[in-house]
TrEMBL record:
The keyword rRNA-binding does not apply. Keywords: Hydrolase, Membrane, Transmembrane, Transmembrane helix. Residues 156-246 form the M23ase beta-sheet core domain. Residues 15-25 have a biased composition (Basic residues). This is Murein DD-endopeptidase MepM and murein hydrolase activator NlpD, contain LysM domain. Residues 1-26, 63-135 are annotated as: Disordered. The keyword DNA repair does not apply. It comes from Micromonospora siamensis. It comes from the Bacteria. Residues 1-12, 68-77 have a biased composition (Basic and acidic residues). It holds the Pfam family Peptidase_M23. The chain crosses the membrane at residues 27-47. InterPro entries: Cell_wall_metabolism_enzyme, Dup_hybrid_motif, M23ase_b-sheet_dom. GO terms for molecular function: metalloendopeptidase activity.
Length: 266
């Protein structure tokens, strides 16, 4: 009898344990369902509020990074910006004096070297020392004067005689034009007459040969012929005359030549 009562008690206790297990399982399942419903509600509310499928955690992370980048950019600009406006507009005197470009260069302070003077050439020396050619010259330089202008043997000797060996060159006393060349007659033999264009003519008589012709232009000192003894002459010599105004109006050549820088012993 006791065994039966124990078995009946066990039979009663077993269904009760099963019911407790079922209730526990139901509570667990219900709790899980409530959690799921809560998560789903939160997700639905988040999606409806932001209209974005991304989780709120990702959006918060991107915003934080953007703010950090903005702060870093501001700090960079502030460090690169000048400390004050006066530092950019007015440089300090110490910086100005310490700059190498502010120092004067040597070329600005040194004196320029004087240019070397050109060395005179031999040609320039000759030009400086050479005297200008005279307008009048001696017709036969170095000759002996054997007779002057004046009365001789009862007649007028109308010129000056220059004696040198035969063939000595005869020079034009001044520049002019040859107006007569050849035998002049009256004992003058071979003669040359030069018109100097200033109212005076010169006459060169007794020549052995002539070097010019009528119309030739001659310069002072140019050879016009050679000494001889043609015409009425006792020996080779040059008979030189000065005619004033017209041919055969002879004057004394000595004072005429002295007035032009030529001294003759007459």
């Amino acid at each position: 009898m006791q065994e039966d009562s124990n078995s009946r008690d066990d039979t009663r206790i077993a269904p009760a344990r099963h019911r407790l297990r079922r209730r526990g399982r139901g509570l667990v399942v219900g709790a899980v369902a409530l959690v799921a419903v809560g998560v789903t509600g939160v997700s639905a509310a988040t999606l409806s509020r932001h209209d974005s499928p991304e989780p709120a955690v990702v959006s918060l992370d991107a915003q934080a990074r953007a703010e950090a980048a903005g702060r870093a950019d501001r700090s960079t600009r502030e460090s690169a910006a000048p400390a004050s406006p006066s530092a950019t507009t007015a440089p300090s005197p110490a910086a100005t004096t310490a700059s190498p470009s502010a120092r004067p260069t040597r070329t600005a302070t040194t004196k320029p070297r004087p240019k070397p003077k050109p060395t005179p050439t031999a040609t320039a020396t000759v030009k400086r020392t050479a005297k200008p050619k005279p307008s009048w010259v001696v017709p036969m330089k170095g000759a002996e004067i054997t007779s002057c202008y004046g009365q001789r043997w009862g007649t007028l000797h109308a010129g000056i005689d220059f004696a040198m060996p035969a063939g000595t060159p005869i020079h034009a006393a001044a520049a002019g034009t040859v107006v007569k060349a050849g035998d002049a007659g009256d004992g003058y033999g071979n003669s040359v007459f030069i018109d100097h264009g200033n109212g005076y003519l010169t006459h060169y008589a007794h020549q052995s040969s002539l070097e010019v012709s009528v119309g030739d232009k001659v310069a002072a000192g140019e050879v016009i012929g050679y000494e001889g003894a043609t015409g009425d002459a006792t020996g080779p010599h040059l008979h030189f005359e000065v005619h004033q105004g017209q041919m055969w109006n002879q004057i004394d050549p000595a004072p005429f030549l002295r007035a032009r820088g030529i001294d003759v012993a007459c």
